[in-house]
Design a protein that fits this description.
Layout lengths: L8 E10 L5 E3 L15 H8 L8 E10 L22 E9 L17 E8 L14 E8 L9 E9 L6 E15 L13 E12 L1
Antiparallel strand pairs: 1-3, 1-9, 2-3, 3-4, 4-5, 5-6, 6-7, 7-8, 8-9
């Protein structure tokens, strides 16, 4: 974590490991799902996803927040790591709506990327749990985001508030893919049981005005 000494603004860098088992999506609100996407057979589900407009689907997941510099910079898009040298400093909660449209016909132009429009809460005053229900220092971020597969996958998102020392916060954050961790990302369309992909890590570079 890096902070500037200026009392009116600060830079903050954290890294997040998404916990794959917390990933949840509900495609019932999708704009136009192909029937095969509802099928439980992996091959049919994958093919159905490629023909579906899944905008409006709900997605939710959680992650552990680490100080900047904790998670090694990935040397490739397939780097997987979990043995981080520092304990997490907080919890991230992310929820939003999928904006993927893979349909090749119909009234809309297909747009397979980006993946998600979301609201993200960064609780930076300790890991959320029964003994730490609402950590005081929290930042709220909104905007588009994606996964680790883009050629230039940086995403610019808005800081829209917070609590504690961030109660008057505004500004922006750059979100970058930062490799993967060894937890498995459940719930992806057509993923065979036991073959779920590793969950992603991300790096967040905040520019905060207080």
């Amino acid at each position: 974590m890096v902070e500037t000494p200026d009392t009116d603004s600060m830079s903050l860098i954290v890294e997040v490991a998404i916990l794959g088992h917390t990933n949840y999506s509900n495609r019932d609100g999708a704009a136009n799902m192909h029937p095969d996407l509802r099928d439980g057979t992996p091959g049919r589900t994958r093919a159905g996803f490629q023909q579906s407009d899944v905008r409006g689907s709900v997605q939710y997941h959680e992650g552990l927040i680490y100080p900047g510099g904790t998670i090694p910079a990935p040397t490739s898009k397939r780097d997987v790591t979990w043995n981080f040298p520092q304990a997490p400093l907080g919890t991230m909660f992310d929820r939003g709506w999928i904006v993927i449209n893979n349909r090749a016909s119909g009234p809309y132009v297909p747009r397979p990327d980006p993946h998600l429009l979301s609201y993200t809460d960064f609780y930076l005053g300790g890991v959320v749990g029964a003994d730490n229900l609402t950590p005081e220092d929290m930042l709220v971020v909104v905007g588009l985001q994606h996964d680790n597969e883009q050629v230039d996958p940086r995403f610019l998102r808005a800081i829209i508030g917070g609590t504690g020392r961030f109660a008057t916060a505004c500004g922006q954050v750059i979100q970058k893919p930062w490799g993967y961790n060894s937890s498995r990302l459940r719930g992806l369309p057509g993923a065979d049981a036991g073959a779920e992909p590793p969950a992603p890590n991300f790096r967040f570079e905040f520019e905060i005005w207080l």
